Amino acid sequence: MMDRMHARAISRRTLLALGSVAVPAALTACTLPGRGNSSTAANGGDTLRISVGQLDSIDPCRARTGAALQVVSQVFDPLMAFDMETFRPAPKAALIQQTSDDARTFTFRLRHASFHDGTTVTSADFKRAWGRLVAAGVDGSGEQDGAVATDVAPSYLLSLVEGYDDVRSGAAKELSGISCPDDITFIVRLSQPYADFPAICAHPALAPIPQLATDDEKTFVQKPVGNGPYQLARAWKSDGDVVLDSFEDYYGVPGSVEHVRLRPRVSTTDAFRDLTARSLDVAQVPVGQVPATRRDIGAPDDGYTAVDGGRFLDGTTLYSYFLVVNTGRDPLSSLSFRRALSRAIDREGLCSTVFNGLREPAYNILPPALCEGEPEAWLATDLDVDAASEVLGEFAPASGDGISLGILCSEDGAHQKVAAYLQTALKAVGVTVEIDTVPAGKYQDKLEAGAFDLALMGWTPDYPARDAVLYPLFASGSPHNYAGYADEDIDAALTAARQTVDDDERARAFDDICRRVGEALPVIPLGYGVLGLAVSSSIEYISADPRGVVSAASAEFSK
Predict the structure, then answer these.
(1) What's the rounded Cα separation, in Å, for the pair 507 and 378?
(2) pTM: predicted TM-score of the whole model, two decimal places
């Protein structure tokens, strides 16, 4: 049976820059300086200044874009969080998390904590937040390049909770699957087994909200009151900076930085110039500046933690970039043909030439951040042009016209440059490629209609779990399975893995599924996303995670 969370597709999406990397002209090389004289907030003390993308809302209920996640993650703590050491969800606002043997009931015991207005965080506050999210939200899941609505609540995160459909339809006001037997116990009952549900609970849109959000929603959306390490210093105005102060009564380890400014910037180039002009501390590096920046400031060993001698963060993100293969069309229906195409692609050359290192070569669909390390390479992802040419020659028509294929891509971001690179690579093995570049909306229509041979696509899971990649892309009947891949054994294995409570056993099951999908090659992996963040020399220490969220609470200024 098709999973409800991934069976709900958004019919019309708006553009989102997060999944795509624009390729501006190279800038003049420059060395990132410190700030000289530290800036100060109104009440004194250092201020950490982080560039974010276009910001439409800071309401946790609508935290979908990278910019919104950057803000909301400083102000709100959800039940769980992504543990960078184990690469798995760990308790955050929850003190203890328990999963039932049937993977349908999840019990959370809450930490003693306060909201920024001084009121105590209780289980009822999580219930309020989840009900508000479902009532206000949108159906759909995952995030594709240029294909996600930015101004709506991701209610589909809770589509497996009992009572979801009733709340969405207006037949009920509350989710029947949520119960709060006391102030510190929050119990969730699902309509079907899903052992990765704690990973969903790491999404900041599922953080608690106080009574104020119901009593005065207009005030709340402009100045949200959360339970995280930082609080809003003033109401946010559209297109303005988000100004935060540290929260003294935070239940966890408070940040050493007293004040934070999150500055919306649409242009990566502008943000980087502000960084070099000493008016920002953390900013995205434009593609053209990556080599010089990496050379000038170095990259840390782990890729996620800026330290002296390594302030260019180049850790991989949750984003995977790949070619969707329309397996229903000849000759793409042939496994040997698909494997030959894959072997004709120099992934290292692609990532270094087109992206200047803002992509890491991918030999598997699962990003390393979901696999506790580098995932096992799929078959036929090795570069072997001679072998590819020999196999593809067997498919050349007798007329002598050669093999012709089309590559569909969105006009957003760097897709056209990637398509041109692939066009050249495949020409070397006897395949003529026609590039079909279309606006994001038409691109989505063509994907859904199967009107393509090959299509460039990126995918970012909403939460850190293998299933959030494998199920939507490869389950039979999934609206995101654009390759038309169908395997009853894989479907059964996916269902079984989702019900497996033991974390290690579930990970092994999904890794085996991934390996078997790789043997069929319905998609051809190309690259993984890279953080690409530069940090000013005035910052001694700061960390980011694979979502691209910078932890202001981790920051320390240089002495």
Answers:
(1) 17
(2) 0.90
